[in-house]
Design brief:
By secondary structure, this protein is mainly alpha-helical. It has one domain (about 5-215). It is built from 7 helices and 3 strands. Strands 1-2-3 form a 3-stranded antiparallel beta sheet.
Amino acid sequence: MASRLTHLATAKPLEQRLDIADKERFEIGIILPDAVLLNKNMRADSHFAELFDNGKFKHYDAFAFYEKFSQLVMTDALYLGYYFHLIEDNIFRTYLYDKKYLGLIGRRGEPELLEELYRDYHTFNRILVRKFGLEDNLSVPQEFSDEPINSIYPFELQEFLEQMSEDFTEHYECELIHFTEELYMKMTDECVEVCAKEYAALRNGTHFLDRYAYSFENKYSSKVRRDHK
């Protein structure tokens, strides 16, 4: 999944493009699905992972989240941000696995791949902070524990934000392993564009995306995904 600062970076242009009034709630929402530290030994599916077509495809089911919180998605920036996070992680997985980008589907599940990706994340943090003007200024909303969103999982937001603080100041100078800066920025631009189009569709009572958009193969399949460029 995309890094927490990647999600925060996409929030900045989306706030301007969609005229988001409560920017802090939006930014909390767009990082919130990752605030699962599992300190409570609880099972969590904060990303609504779903297999479909007899297990051939997998995606993070943003539509299931929307169905659960549809009124709040359209009225509360925190829930809209959460919805966008799930879409963005699907886009990230497409860039990671699809042959026209990195084509790493054959290495899915390898612990070494995860370590390599995290090394790239650490290197990109400095770039994202500079390019998008990111600041370590988020805090837990008042009465957050009473939010309906916690029915998914009792999010450990305070601890997560404390860990995230380190992302804003680290200065890794490692050589990138998988993503280039050009490809990474292309991905973030696509996240912004797709989320903006989905939001416009939601306001008209429909969806820009469908379940095949940015899904990834769980098994080899001849089914062709629809292009949502």
